[in-house]
Amino acid sequence: MKQQVPTYKNHRFQISIVTHAIWLYFRFNLSLREIEEMMLERGVEVSYETIRRWRCLHGSLLTATIASQVTFTH
């Protein structure tokens, strides 16, 4: 099965900002409001609702990509 490349067409923010916010959500189990505060500390003013939309649109594809790149060692 071929994976789709995420499209970030019509986004106000750069791809790196979108993927970083989604990565923070899944990697560290943070709330959307905590991510909003962390992004604000970095100078990116984005609402928690926008982060929630990014998570819904791109989250499953990003986690699948990360999971395919992870190698487990014993």
UniProtKB/TrEMBL annotation:
Q: Which InterPro entries match?
A: IS_Transposase
Q: Which organism is it from?
A: Pseudochrobactrum kiredjianiae
The protein's name: IS6 family transposase
